[in-house]
Design a protein that fits this description.
Helix content: 10-25%
Distance between the termini: 5 Å
Number of domains: 1
Strand order of the largest sheet: 4-3-2-5-6-7
Bound molecules: xanthosine-5'-monophosphate, magnesium ion
Shape: globular
Largest sheet: 6 strands, mixed
């Protein structure tokens, strides 16, 4: 496993993002909508870096199955939160082609939020095919598959406190 972003780097950047988000949403009680499962570690750290009032919701989304290439198919299941008139901040682990985010944006906009922004830990801009805006992001990532800090390879490696590049499925 090659370390891409250390736990210390992640911690520092998440605190910076939290500070920025707290300033921007100081009085608006935003709702952070966390995309499961990959964003859960990021959310847990980020929400503790946001001292202003906010709520959280979870949206189960799958687009990758157990593979490491985008299938282009996105499914949303069991989302029953009422976002009408709320200031929504989508929390995503990594934006790759952008198709997942594009689909989710349309879905959430259908709920008539007061505003909708996106916060992604990692941005892989070279893989982008869909022009979605990322309002807050932690780091730019190279166009390779990464794991750790919530992100998986076939459900493995989510527990790693850093973000890394697995050498291969067997040796990583
Ligand atoms: P798209 O291509 O729709 O993909 O932007 C975004 C979703 O795919 C997941 N993804 C990854 N997951 N390592 C992962 O563990 C990666 O390198 C990676 N790239 C994309 C991610 O969950 C995101 O929701
Ligand atoms: Mg994800």
């Amino acid at each position: 496993m090659q370390v891409l972003f250390t736990a210390e780097q992640l911690k520092k950047r998440v605190l910076e993002l939290g500070k920025q988000i707290s300033q921007d949403y100081a009085t608006t009680n935003p709702v952070l909508v966390c995309l499961l499962k990959g964003s859960v570690v990021f959310l847990a750290d980020l929400m503790r870096a946001i001292p202003v009032p906010h709520t959280v919701e979870f949206l189960r989304v799958s687009s990758y199955g157990s593979k490491t290439v985008s299938s282009g198919r996105v499914e949303i299941t069991d989302f029953d939160a009422d976002l009408t008139g709320r200031h929504v901040l989508v929390i995503e682990d990594i934006v790759d082609t952008g198709s997942t985010l594009g689909y989710i944006r349309e879905y959430l906009l259908g709920q008539k939020p007061a505003s909708l922004r996106v916060c992604a830990l990692l941005d892989k801009p070279t893989a982008r095919v869909s022009g979605v805006a990322i309002d807050y992001f932690g780091f730019t990532a190279p166009d390779v598959f990464v794991v750790g800090y919530g992100m998986d390879w076939d459900e493995r490696f989510r527990h790693l406190p850093y973000v890394g590049i697995p050498e291969s499925q067997d040796s990583a």
